[in-house]
Amino acid sequence: MKDDSELQPIQQFISALVPFDSLSDSSLVRCCQQLTIGYYSKTSKVVPLDESHPQLYIVRSGAFEVRDEQGELLDRLGEGDYFGFPSLLSGEKVSNQVQILEDSLVYHLDPDTFNYLRSESRVFDRFFNRAFAKRMRHQARFKAKDLTTTNRVNSLMSVDPLTIDCHASVSDAAKKMRLARVSSVLVIDNHKLIGILTDRDLRNRVLAEGFDGSLAVHQAMTTNPKRLSANALVFEAMLLMSEHGIHHLPIMAETPIDDNTEAPAVGMLTSTDILRGQSSQPLLLIGEIERQQDIDSLINVSKQIPVLLQNLISADARAEEVGRVLTSVTDALTRRLIILNQQILGAAPMAFCWLAFGSQGRQDQAACSDQDNGLLLAHEPDEHAKGYFNALSHAVCEGLDKCGYIYCPGDIMAQNPKWRLSLDKWQRHFESWLNAPEPKALMHASIFFDMRAVYGPQNLFEQLQNHVLERTKDNDIFLAGMAGNSLVESPPLGFFRKFVLERDGSEVKGMDLKHKGVALINDIARVYALSAGITEVNTPKRIRALMDANIINRKDALNLADAHEFIAHMRLANQGEQYTSQQDVTNYLKPQQMSSLIRHQLRDAFKVVHDAQSGLRMKFMRSY
Q: Domain ranges in the chain?
């Protein structure tokens, strides 16, 4: 029996925890009397869970990770969190492993007292049953992980790819391909990859053109093929194939053999390899989109997108990967809508690019994304061309809306003539924002400077992008204005690292993870990238490019990238929970929905954002 001096600090700690705060005074005292305390050293690495004597473990101090039999991370635990309850509730043997991250103190509660408390308090019983169900769902999700978001291309590629000298004949190439039973061969010149010859090239560029088998390989090959490193993710290969309409990707070694040569090709990845390695996930959905022959069918296929998002969230994919996969689907839908509407309207009267701005431009789309797009025309349109592009833009924007991408509330869309311009007029628009960085111009800059061409000739888009970046570099007044605009909002941390919550009247909405977190890092990366003329618009890629150029030091860049990923991941995970529980999907997260360890990590992430904002102010606003 514990005396009052022992019992008081235990009771003070336990009574503040959910669901122990629902217990009657007598039940709470009984619980605290039965608690024993254990010390777990980090050097022990793993908590020795006794299958014959299951207990509820209550973390008093320290940190742990719960992993399943395959080593997948299921949960991170800190002060006030629990483990051991699944086996108490199910009666099954312990299957998970609890790893010790730091020296820890843990209270142990025996099964008899645990069951007594369940019988005494419905709130207590409901809490642990829900926690158990959540843990089981979480474990099931890992078993359904999609290879496109977790595996590297080297796990699916064929090794030792077939190669041929560029001066060999296409007849020799065809024989090699037939013997090896492959559909492509890499073309080499002086140990350097210069092209790829596929069975489609043989059909379209040799047989269909009437050439005989003596034609040199370099005359029929596809030059400078797209390629990836062996350590790239499968989803990156999927995106590259989708964006460029290709089915073969040479896979290169991570590093060259010596300083005078490029990294050699070590494998080949085909769309068939990816299909073999995954079930109905992003690549198949994109393939479905590209096969649709009418707009109504396309709208019907788009209904799979929320399911795809939920699958990605359930598989605990990185936020960066989720954003790029979702954006690749949006890009595919946009391109297909353009193609289908051109079949109705006829060929375009001039070259044009469909531009994506904002989250689609950055390739970081999440749930409930609206449209931000525009049209870049090769030259000033006459009345006929104006009518054509007006019809095309309205049809595509309407199609996107019907596919779930709602109209932009600010009307930043290609269907608005204001954002359907020739190259010359787009350039003048950007120059006006750069030369007079008023609040509205800075608001536009935060959207339009994250731009990417989704459809159309890349060289047309690059003319606009290069024109803009040449004028943002060393433009001190504009950059100071952009930096100041980026500092209007701040991360939700108050005195003593307390979270600052958004309110709507008497209702506490929680922390806005988008506008007070992810968007702030997007803003910081954008200002630095524009100051250096960096072409990347995806925020993690911008941060890496800034680090590689020594514009942001390595430590700060890695911290900022980690903070961006963590906050974005928390936002997605929260939206996934809201979606499955049929709540409104929002950007708000309440602290009581998080474990103490997650709260601690989120505070650290917001502190990184705060420090990065201070650095931005020092670099770009010292003279203003």
A: 4-137, 154-238+250-266, 473-624
